[in-house]
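HOLO CASE FILE
Compound: adenosine-5'-triphosphate
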Amino acid sequence: MQGTELVYELFNVKKRYGGRRRYVEALRGISLTVRRGEFVAVTGPSGSGKTTLLSILGLLTKPTSGTVKIFGKDVSRLTDKEATLLRRKAIGFVFQTFNLVPWLTAAENIEIALAIGGYRGNRKRRVMELLEAVGLEDRADHKPAELSGGEQQRVAIARALANNPTVILADEPTGNLDTTSGLQVVGILRSVTEEGRTVVMVTHDQKMAEMADRIVKIRDGQILGEVIPSVKA
Ligand SMILES: Nc1ncnc2c1ncn2[C@@H]1O[C@H](COP(=O)(O)OP(=O)(O)OP(=O)(O)O)[C@@H](O)[C@H]1O
Ligand SMILES: [Mg+2]
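Model generated. Tokens follow.
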């Protein structure tokens, strides 16, 4: 599994929600390859299928048809248990609304992720390392309400990185942030790709998308085209 250059290979992926008579065709034949260490932005209008695509990449949703491979393995051949284990080990999630536990400190929010992932080393030390990686070592004891939006999102990224995932999937991670904090958050996501991780980020914001290596544009559940941004911030 390690050393595989291709992280995702999607071929003609379709996703239909609903029953036989009333349904929504959320994805209509997506083919996409994502490599190790790549930073891919996915843009498109509301309802175009971005979150659906991300949840398929996160092994949270199964496609209705088509093939999804992760690290060269056909996802349809995994049992639910295998998919859950793989997700826990290899994929970190970041959401628009941060999703931190409000009554826990920044450090504790990260520590639970380590506990869930079965981290065997010194948890406190690992938490501090992760907080340092996002520039928040002096906010360890703050609860989410005592942090700015950008700081909360940086804690959420530290939490997503806790179990050393190969892939980070981020759905509108800057949607609730001003431009400055947004660019800082995307800068951190960029920097984790330099460690060989892969990031797929859904965004409405062109400025954020341009910090990626590639922009995949989707419309009505189909890929409209891909753009390589010329200038990196
Ligand atoms: N669980 C579901 N059941 C039924 N329909 C769904 C479900 N999830 C999404 N849809 C529909 O599938 C389509 C794609 O939704 P999706 O959430 O992927 O869009 P999106 O691009 O992420 O939009 P946004 O930018 O508003 O977040 C929409 O028409 C939506 O109504
Ligand atoms: Mg969405």
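CASE NOTES: The chain has one domain: 36-50+79-227. The two ends are 32 Å apart (CA to CA).
CLOSED: yes
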